[in-house]
Amino acid sequence: MKREDEEMEEEEEQGAVLLEKAGTVRILLSLLKGESKISELIEKAKCPYTTLYTSLSLLRNLKLVEVEIVKKYPRKKTVKLTERGRRVAELLKQIDDIIKSSESEPAQHRH
Question: What angle do CA 32, 38, 42 make, to 5 degrees?
Fold first, then answer.
């Protein structure tokens, strides 16, 4: 039982870190449009290879993405959202839309 508690606590800590990690939000938003090869994801999410792999490791641990290896030559890795990942990505998209829409609104001054 102790092990499960430690895993849940670690997952909660990782969840809180999600938004701080470079590229994780961009990766999730990019994957909302559909699965992607690693090379395509680097381009879409605009993050370096090492950042992408670090972020994907975090996202996999949180069960937000799945990485599938296509066993044809040349081997390719495909990344896609899990159902849980889709729900998180959709919420992030809503937040992103709100922020973008507020940028176009004139600032209101409080007195």
Answer: 80
Residue 75 confidence (pLDDT):
79
Domain presence at residue 109: no
Instruction: Print burial letters for 45-82: b (CB count within 10 Å at least 16), e (below 16).
Output: bebeeebbebbbebbeebebbeeeeeeeeeeeeebebb
Q: What is the pTM of this model?
A: 0.75
pLDDT in tens, 9-33: 555 566 666 777 768 999 999 999 9
Show the tokens assigned to 109: 């001054």
Q: The domain containing residue 83 runs over which residues? A: 2-102
* Spatial distance between the Cα atoms of 59 and 41, rounded to a whole number of angstroms: 14
CATH code: domain of residue 13: 1.10.10.10
**Structure tokens that stand for 38 in this block:** 């690693």
